[in-house]
Amino acid sequence: MLRKAAQYINQSISNWLVKEEAPASIPLCDFERLQYEVRPADVILVEGRSRVSEVIKLITQSSWTHAALYIGRLYDISDPALRQLVQESYLGDPNDQLLVEAQLGIGTVVVPITKYEGEHLRICRPQALSPVDAHKVSKFCIQRLGMDYDVRHILDLARFLFPWTILPRRWRSSLFQHNAGAPTRTVCSTLLADAFTKVKYPILPFIERSEQGDVRFYKRNTRLFSPKDFDYSPYFDIIKYPYIGLDDLSMYRNLPWSDIDIVYNDDKDHLHRSLDEYDKEKQAEKQRSALYFNEGGPSNFLQHCEHFLKNNTPVLNTKERR
């Protein structure tokens, strides 16, 4: 009886914490392009809209409140045993693009990436992760499908929402205490951190350099990782697909081009009109030169120049008129 009551209380708290607000009218990312570009073992960061998301934002000082691992479509999973595990956990379309995530109040599950359509998303891609290790990372997460979420973490989050003065000091969760030398982090990204640590891929390792100049990497406690650590890590490429990108707007069309059809020969040369007009000018110069020498020198040349400027055609000499 007491056990059922505790489960009911835990579930009620979870439902209250994960209740979401209405989404933004205009999304911040191009979801269709993100679907096209995402690869297996990519980490998908989500800016959540629930009450627990607001708590995570406050604690981590980051807008990213959730992280999930992309594992591809069902037929992208080469291992038959892993494919069977995914099929048992996900009954949707085999062509759906899938994520593995640890969800508050539910546990580790498989969900379609379309669950987050319209949300603010970001891809964090591990640099130079080998295909073998990418498979191991996905395998680690898939093998943990069905595991429960940390119940104590749910209670700690619920307690954190109450004002400090209501509950006795001894009831405060140590999970959120900012003690010196021990940064407080949420544990929602522990699953992904464990997966990458399993293949010795660095997220935010502790790096020590000896007096001799030797460098040594040390693993961090994976329970202290939060979604923002994948965004902050120098070992993950950050990939963004804005809803309206500059490439989509063809910004080159709005460059301040001159309305006059002119070209430069080089930086130091004078401006010339279009190449066709430039060739015409060269031809006209030859004609003027011929008139100058054949029809009486400077006086006749000035006459031809004046007529050319007015009519843009040379004056025919006496012989040509005949």
Draw up the topology in text:
Layout: H1 2-18, H2 31-37, E1 43-46, H3 51-60, E2 66-72, H4 80-89, E3 98-103, E4 107-112, E5 121-126, H5 131-142, H6 151-160, H7 190-198, E6 206-209, E7 215-218, H8 227-232, E8 236-239, E9 262-264, E10 271-273, H9 275-294, H10 298-311, H11 318-321
Antiparallel strand pairs: 1-2, 1-5, 2-3, 3-4, 5-8, 6-7, 9-10
Give the overall silhouette.
elongated
CATH class division of the largest domain: Alpha Beta
Can you list the strand order of the major beta sheet?
4-3-2-1-5-8
Which sequence of SSEs, written as H and E, runs from N to C? HHEHEHEEEHHHEEHEEEHHH
And the CATH topology of the largest domain?
A: endopeptidase fold (from Nostoc punctiforme)
Determine the N-to-C terminus distance: 124 Å
Low-confidence stretches: 174-186, 314-322
Radius of gyration: 35 Å
